[in-house]
Batch of 2 targets.
Target 1
Amino acid sequence: MARALELAARGWGRVAPNPLVGAVIVRDGVAVGEGWHTEYGQPHAEAEALRAAGEAARGATAYVTLEPCSHFAKTPPCTDGLLAAGVRRVVFAAHDPNPRAAGGGEVLRAAGVEVLGGVMEAEARDQNALFFHAHSNSARPFVALKLALTLDGRIADHAGSSVWITGEGARAEVHRLRAGFDAVAVGSGTALADDPRLTVRGPVEPRVPPTRVVFDRTLRLPLASRLVGTAREVPVTVVAGSDPPAESAAALGLHGVRVLVSTGIHDGLLALRESGIGSVFVEGGAKLASALLNADVVDRLYLFYAPLFLGPGGVGAFAELDTVEIGAAHRWRRLRTETFGADTLITLARHTGG
Ligand code: AOF
Ligand code: ZN
């Protein structure tokens, strides 16, 4: 199953809004076929692994990271494929939250296949957190917050310069992460200070380029910014406050920028979801990061720590967080620690599956 999860990860950036899924067919203790969901609309992981295994699948065990589907949609049901191939046993990680496709476990069991579900389920749910969120009853997008920090929690020096905190490896990882989200967002302060592009320029080319989002209550985003200048190539959405300056809204609209009106951060997220954005990768700055954390709407944290200090004059990432007593503070769940050159990435989840 660990191998199947590894394979599933290869679909990052290519399969959303469908899930990352991996599968391994094992016979007599030997992997005879591997597969993963490579591309939205293409064959499911099980079908790929069965194709690779061929006749060797007869009497074998299939390990799949998601309960095999039982529905006809873009592709025929994987339950049919597994039965036709003569697989004797199916082990899956997470139960399918998609009501249209779920129930494959029962279908297989009724057909005489030995079925075991829930193996490495937590890992599988963490890997597919965006998919599980989309099938939850939450009305807002999945929110990930990424920050590049110094050891003393600064995201910029006293002059506001932030570009060189983390190194090249960490920056490449940020681009890889961006590719898996529907949107990449910053606050207006960061948009003004850095004039970012927020495009994906890394190891994974996203199937659909993420929408660039700016949380910009009073529509300060300059028409001359790189974001506005490229809004017709890769979409830009601005989340404004409830009464944005009409002239700015009209001018942004003329440049191809979508302006959403909101009464606050939570409402802004709902508006994004209504506009079709199921997941947002937020990259700061400090004000937006604190606002999201204070509103308790961050599902996942990607904290890149670079080995330097900038001192109290630097811009603190968390300066505007609400103060809480130690007994009441929420403890995040660590998913991973990884290193990228001199930098360390700590990935944390808010909830189970977050
Ligand atoms: C995938 N890839 O490897 C597996 C999936 O829209 P469809 O027809 O491709 O079906 C999507 C559903 O199928 C998905 O929501 C999930 O419930 C199930 N399994 N989907 O895209 C896969 N195994
Ligand atoms: Zn399937």
Target 2
Amino acid sequence: METFEQMEEYGHEQVIFCDNKESGLKSIIAIHDTTLGPALGGTRMWKYRNVDEAMKDALRLSRGMTYKSSVAGLNFGGGKAVIIGDAATDKSELLFRTFGKYVDGLAGRFIAAEDVGTDVKDMEYARMESKYITGISKAIGGSGDPTPVTAYGVYVGMKACAHERWGTDSLRGRKVAVQGAGQVARHLCEYLYNEGAEIFITDIYEEKIEYVLDTIKAHVVKPAEIYEINAEIFSPNALGSIINDDTLDKLKCEIIAGGANNQLEDETKHGMALMDKGILYAPDYVINAGGLINVANELEGYRQDRAMKQAEGIYSIVQKVLKKSKTENIPTNVASDKIAEERLQCISKVRNIYSGDSTFRGRLGELSQR
Ligand code: NAD
């Protein structure tokens, strides 16, 4: 598909291709929608097989950011940068400073953060060239590791689901199957354990599980078994696409609430299938918005207490999504998409009001007749 056709299909405003011979940087920055504010999104470094694959990823992910920010009530648009390259071998100070230069050239239309394949250090290099970089370390005034805030958002979102399903948001005695024992899962498990939930955990790396078991008690299960555990809550915190034709039949849970991105392999089909099965699904981008909230807070002068307080708001956002899903009899993921779109439509109307402008932009119109 042609670039413009692709942009039109997803509704993108702008796509920037960056190619720099000296540093080897090949990057695509996709700005989806800036109705709510500057596009904010991560920088993914990946071994894309070709430009097409990188472009598709940038378009899909940046669109997702528009929805995530809108539902979370943040005033940011959706954007994403992808860097074509191997994160294990192709990183350098020059690469990320060059990337920072390109971001700077966008004069604030796009604000970059870290994502898969990039880390705080990379963003610090980029930050040397642009103030439009976030996700830097606490030591130099940044927000640092976002996972405690992400995990807290997942936890309160899970409680909102529990309240909807059982009339109480207490998780004491509830069985929770946690997929993945990474950063988000580790913090989440601490909240669950402290509240008295019974945890079943899995990971493909034993040492990750052991690290989690340093601070909590949990039953350890094999990766393939996690779907079939007789637990009331399934919490995916590892990979995407784990709700699919194969896993759907195995699931015995009543609630799915986890931090992983893109949990539904097919949004339409599997969102509907969960609804038909009577499983309450907390849409991934709603419940894992804590990471975005964290970096957004950095731009206001970071304070973790404020970020945590804001992440706590995910409880009522999930409630709103569940209510809409119930009233309109639609899957929860469709309900959250609608809420995001309604806010965008609504706020775009504010733009119709003229409130003064310091820059003269040819308001006289054309001076000469064509
Ligand atoms: P992480 O890499 O620290 O943890 C992921 C864990 O999943 C790893 O320990 C990995 O070994 C494990 N894993 C991989 N494949 C597995 C499998 N088949 N079965 C079981 N475990 C498997 O990542 P994270 O930062 O904890 O993020 C977890 C998820 O949450 C990701 O999908 C991420 O995109 C999403 N997310 C994270 C944040 C954040 O703040 N870090 C924010 C929003 C969304």
